[in-house]
Amino acid sequence: MIIETHKLTKQYYGSGGCQDISLSVIEGHIFGFLGPNGAGKSTFVKTLLGLLIPSGGEAKIIGQSIGDTKARKHIGYLPELFRYQDWLTGEELLKYHAQLYGLTKSEYQIRIGTILDLVGLMGKERKKVGAYSKGMQQRIGLAAALINNPTLLFLDEPTSALDPIGRKEVRDIIIELRNQGKTVFLNSHLLSEVETVCDEIAIINNGKLIMSGSWREMQLGELWLEVTIKNLSTAIIEKLDLAVLKVEKSGNDNLVIKIAGEEEVNKALKIIIDNGGTITKIETKKRSLEELFLHALTKGNNDADYN
Q: Is the whole model's pTM more than 0.85, yes or no?
C-alpha cells in the first residue's frame, strides 16, 4: 500500500478536522476522497503531507512515516486554493519548483518541456502567471505538481477553474498518470469525474470515515431491475419478496426489484415467468456515485446495504 493510516486524527483545540481515519490506498490506482464542504478532507491531506502535525493515530506514505523528507521527494501536490508569484513566467515558476525538488538544470529543462506539453501550456510558458486565465493558472499548478515526476500525486479540486473541455483533458491526464504506474489521490466535489476515473473511493463526513473501498465493487454489488409485466399477480410479488432484496410496485404493471448482483437477474425473471407473468420490458440500473454519496451521508455507516 502506498498510503496507510490507522486512526489518523487532526483536530483543532479538540474539535473539527478529521478523526480516527483508517484507510489504505493501493499503488498505481486513482483514489477518490469525497465529502461535503467542511468534512475534513483538506485537513486529512495536509496531515498526510506533513503540513499539519497529527493529534493522534499513525500513517505511512510511500513506506515512510508522514513528514519524512525522503518520501516528499516522490510526492506532488496541487492544493485547492493556491496562489503563485504573479511576476514569474510559467517557465520560471516551473524552474523554481524543479530546483526546490533538487533537479539539475539538464533534468528540469527536459522535464519542463514534457510537462508543458502534457498540460496544454506549450507556447505560453513565457507569459507571466499573473496574466494567465483561471484555467491556465489551474494548468500551471498541475504542471508544478508534476515537475518532479512524482510517484504519488495529491490533487485537490484539480478541475475547479476549467471549462468542460479542460476538465476532460485533465481527466485524460489523470488516467495517463495511472497508466504510467503513478498513484493519484483525488479530492473533488464533481462526483461525475470521480465516478469516471477512480478505482477506489472513501467518503467522510463531520471528520469521520463513513466508507471506503472499490467503487466498481460497490456499484456492481447492487442492481435495480425495472420490469414491465403482463398478468402481474400478488403471488409474483410475494415470491419475489422472499428471493430478492426489495420489491416495489410502480404502476399497475411495473415492478422495481432490488437484487444483490448480476447473478440474481435470471433468478428474479424465472420467478416472474414461472408464476404466469409475461415480461414486456426490462431495464437494469446500477446505482450512481451520487446516489451512493447522498445515501451514505444520510445513513452513515450503520446502513447494512452500504457496508
A: no
